[in-house]
Each structure stands twice: as structure tokens, then as C-alpha cells.
């Protein structure tokens, strides 16, 4: 089991590392991959200056990874930890490292006492969620790891192009025998039979070996409805599947995933349907 953990050496990144470790520590083949990505600042400079700056940034990244590795090795004795320093955007660095290492999950920290605060919207974690196709777990900085017993999976009843993307969710649920709460938020009153609708997608065959519960919630605000349900059942994780929106749509409204991430106080698993 390989977990890829991007780091900027912050408290948030270290919290994500601990969550990633706790999540899969019982696997005998556990490996934690610490990735530091760096890129040149967007300022005008001569070629020679740029080369010198890139070299300096590379040395700094490698040095800081070495220090971090030494500290983490002391805190997590016997755990296999490898480091990767990579030039490029964070999302590209993650995708390249994922493909090379054949990782199972990406775990990233989020700043703020209650999840993705306003300061983080539009920054690293959201950018990764929106642009990488791999499964990403975003962990609030103050979240204390606990076994996953209740997972909220919000569906809009759209048939998935590739249902296999649910495999990370299933793997996480099976670790501790979690219940998957499949919820649908209706913006107006409806008599929908959610279990029957889910069977027709089909999703039930993927969750066949797991306990499931179904809930239809009437609300004009999807993100708030999900957040309320998460709090009511004291969920340990919420799962969303970001939808691809056009440029013009993105100018005028946030995606549900972004809204949920904005206010979620629990870890968020983002799965990309591709």
C-alpha cells in the first residue's frame, strides 16, 4: 500500500502525513512517499539568473526533504518513507510521481480549524482536487485520526462513466467495515426511491459487501445539506465526484465539491470520473 503525501513542510502537511500513516499502518507493505514540488516564480529574469535560481530551489527542496525525513523517521520508526523532489506545478508533479510510484492514495492537508477555509480556496489543495484524476483525500489540519465507521457518499444519480473509480472508496470502507451512507439532495419535494435508483445506475453491485444506508434530503443548497447530514451522523469521511464544468460556468458558480470542501470539517475523498 503506497500513500503519496505532498508537503510544503507545514503543520498542515505533517498532519496529513500522520493521517496517511494511521489510515494504512496495518498493511505490511506500507510505503509513504513524501513529495516536495517547486517551480520558478513568474518574474522576468535572464537565462543565467533563472538557471541559478532553479538550482538553488532544487538544493533547498532536497535539503528540506532530508531534514523532514530524519524527523519523521524518528517519529515513525520502522516505517518505509521515501522522498521525491520535483520541479513543476504541484498537480503535474503529483500526477508524474503517482504514475511512477503506482500509489494508492494521495493525502493532502488543508489549512484552518474547520477544513478548507476561505484562504485556501483557489490554492494548492483545491487546485489538485480540480485537476488531477487520482483519488485525493483532503484532511483538515485539526482532524484527529479515528477509524472510519461512517462514510457519506453524495450522488446526483448520474451514471458514472467509469464505476471503477469507486474502488478507493470501497477499499477504505472495508478496512474498518464502514457503513456507506448514500444520499441524494433534491431541490424540491420528491417521492424518489433512492435504493431502487442506485440499483439502476448500477452502484449497489460495487457496495454489495458493505452495509449501506440511503437518505433523500430536500434542500436548495446541496453543499449545506451534505454538511448537515455529515454532522448529524458524525461521519468520518465525505466523498464527492467533481464534475467537469465549462469555463463560463466556473465564472458564475462554485462546484459542489468546492463548496463541500469549503465547509467540511471531516476528511474529503475526491474521486474523478474519467
Task: Note down, in words, how this protein is organized.
- The protein has 274 residues and is an alpha/beta fold.
- It is built from 9 helices and 10 strands.
- Strand 7, helix 6 and strand 8 form a beta-alpha-beta unit.
- It starts with a strand and ends with a strand.
Terminal CA distance: 23 Å
Shape: elongated
**Average pLDDT score:** 82
Radius of gyration: 20 Å
Which percent range describes the beta-strand content?
15-25%
Annotated CATH homologous superfamily of the largest domain? HUPs
Judging by the overall fold, what is the CATH architecture of the largest domain? Answer: 3-Layer(aba) Sandwich
Structurally, the number of domains stands at: 2
Residues in helices, as a percent range: 25-40%
Topology as a string of helices (H) and strands (E): EHEHEHEHEEHEHEHEHHE
Which runs of at least 5 residues are low in confidence (pLDDT < 50)? 112-122, 244-254
Give a short account of the largest sheet.
10 strands, mixed
Number of helices: 9
Assigned CATH class of the largest domain? Alpha Beta
Total count of strands: 10
Strand order of the largest sheet: 3-2-1-4-5-10-9-6-7-8
CATH names the topology of the largest domain as Rossmann fold
Oligomer: single chain
What is this structure's SSE topology?
Layout: E1 2-6, H1 11-24, E2 31-38, H2 47-75, E3 80-87, H3 90-101, E4 105-110, H4 124-131, E5 136-140, E6 150-154, H5 167-176, E7 179-186, H6 194-200, E8 212-218, H7 222-232, E9 237-240, H8 247-252, H9 256-263, E10 268-270
Parallel strand pairs: 1-2, 1-4, 2-3, 4-5, 6-7, 6-9, 7-8, 9-10
Antiparallel strand pairs: 5-10
Helix pairs in contact: 7-9
Amino acid at each position: 500500500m503506497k500513500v503519496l503525501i505532498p508537503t510544503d513542510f507545514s503543520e498542515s502537511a505533517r498532519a496529513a502525513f500522520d493521517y496517511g500513516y494511521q489510515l494504512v499502518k496495518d498493511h505490511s507493505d506500507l510505503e509513504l512517499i513524501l513529495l516536495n514540488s517547486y517551480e520558478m516564480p513568474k518574474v522576468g529574469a535572464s537565462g543565467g539568473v533563472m538557471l541559478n535560481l532553479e538550482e538553488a530551489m532544487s538544493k533547498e527542496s532536497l535539503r528540506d526533504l532530508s531534514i523532514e525525513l530524519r524527523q519523521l523517521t524518528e517519529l515513525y520508526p520502522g516505517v518505509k518513507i521515501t522522498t521525491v523532489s520535483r520541479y513543476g506545478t504541484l498537480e503535474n508533479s503529483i500526477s508524474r510521481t503517482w504514475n511512477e510510484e503506482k500509489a494508492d492514495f494521495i493525502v493532502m492537508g488543508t489549512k484552518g480549524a474547520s477544513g478548507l477555509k476561505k484562504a485556501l480556496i483557489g490554492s494548492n489543495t483545491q487546485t489538485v482536487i480540480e485537476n488531477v484524476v487520482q483519488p485525493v483525500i483532503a484532511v483538515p489540519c485539526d482532524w484527529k485520526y479515528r477509524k472510519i465507521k461512517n462514510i457519506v457518499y453524495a450522488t446526483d444519480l448520474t451514471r458514472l462513466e467509469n464505476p471503477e473509480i469507486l474502488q478507493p472508496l470501497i477499499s477504505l470502507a472495508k478496512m474498518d467495515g464502514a457503513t456507506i451512507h448514500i444520499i441524494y439532495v433534491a431541490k424540491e419535494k420528491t417521492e424518489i426511491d433512492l435504493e431502487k435508483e442506485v440499483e439502476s445506475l448500477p452502484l449497489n453491485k460495487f457496495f454489495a459487501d458493505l452495509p449501506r444506508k440511503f437518505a433523500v434530503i430536500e434542500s436548495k443548497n446541496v453543499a449545506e445539506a451534505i454538511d448537515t447530514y455529515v454532522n448529524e451522523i458524525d461521519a468520518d469521511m465525505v466523498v464527492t465526484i467533481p464534475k467537469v464544468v465549462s469555463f463560463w460556468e466556473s465564472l458564475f458558480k462554485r462546484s459542489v465539491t468546492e463548496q463541500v470542501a469549503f465547509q467540511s470539517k471531516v476528511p474529503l475523498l475526491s474521486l474523478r470520473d474519467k
